[in-house]
Write a structure and sequence with these properties.
By secondary structure, the protein is α+β, with helices and mostly antiparallel strands. Among the domains are: 109 residues, 2-Layer Sandwich (Alpha-Beta Plaits), CATH 3.30.70; 48 residues, no CATH class. It has 6 helices and 9 strands, in the order E-H-E-E-H-H-H-E-E-E-E-E-E-H-H. The strands form 3 sheets. Strands 1, 2, 3, 4 and 5 form a 5-stranded antiparallel sheet that branches. A two-stranded antiparallel sheet has the order 6-7. It has a two-stranded antiparallel ribbon with strand order 8-9. The radius of gyration is 26 Å and the shape is flat. The mean pLDDT is 87.
Length: 245
């Protein structure tokens, strides 16, 4: 693969580092629901479970999600069920261990008809928490160790001039009839992450496509496309037009 016409920018004065801490303990149980009134059954099961456990407030964090896989007039069993996934987290492993997962079994006869879970009661597991941070470049020495044991220090690249980038002006989206199409029909995409921080890169083949994309893909539109899980997350949009032409 050959990449041409690309110019980099000078390195920043800091380097990214990853900090990993022990977050505590967690456990997840998934209840399977089928038939009519799925939302009502899920709410009933959730209320019963936390009544048995002594309330949601006993845990540092609680996450309850109703996952709808069910379809009307299902042709197969997996198409007729929804999952109520309940996750609890706490520094105390005793709270989220078998005391939590065993409590779900107490709902077997007192809960909704057809009650069952995807797994038997499980024990707690530890989880980590990632935090991104930065350190001064001067605090890090880049060293390469060769096969014979020789160590070579690799100096930082020299700081040069920042390339001047053309910034095509954003244009208003044209009016008229529209149709639904994959965003990938206009641009390519890739995604990556630094722990809990995700990034998505999009690129186009032509300046015209870039101008349209820049007008279309606002912060609000990104939030809309990502869905409810991004509703409360911070989203930044950065425009990186072609440089060096």
């Amino acid at each position: 693969m050959r990449i041409s016409g690309v110019r980099g920018s000078p390195p920043p004065p800091t380097l990214k580092v990853a900090l990993n801490d022990t977050g505590g303990f967690r456990n997840t149980m998934t209840l399977v629901l089928t038939g009519l009134d799925i939302e009502a059954k899920a709410a009933h099961a959730e209320a019963l479970l936390f009544d048995v456990l002594g309330g949601r407030h006993r845990f540092t964090e609680v996450d309850v999600r109703l996952l709808r896989f069910d379809t009307p007039d299902a042709r197969a069993n997996e198409q007729a069920t929804a999952h109520l996934r309940i996750t609890v987290k706490d520094p105390d492993p005793r709270k989220v261990g078998r005391a939590f997962s065993n409590a779900t079994m107490e709902l077997a006869l007192a809960g909704y008809a057809g009650f069952h879970t995807t797994t038997p009661p499980t024990a707690e597991s530890a989880y980590g928490v990632f935090r991104p941070a930065a350190v001064a470049r001067s605090a890090v020495r880049h060293t390469v160790v060769l096969s014979d044991g020789e160590r070579r220090v690799i100096p930082d690249p020299e700081v040069g001039e920042v390339p001047v980038c053309r910034q095509p002006a954003a244009v208003a989206l044209p009016g008229g009839p529209v149709t639904t199409a994959p965003l990938g029909a206009v641009c390519g995409a890739r995604s990556g992450d630094k722990g809990g921080d995700a990034n998505i890169g999009l690129w186009t083949r032509t300046d015209a496509e870039y101008r349209w994309l820049r007008g279309f893909l606002t912060t609000g539109k990104v939030r809309e496309l990502l869905g409810p899980e991004a509703a409360d997350l911070r989203i930044d949009v950065w425009h990186l037009p072609t440089c060096g032409r």
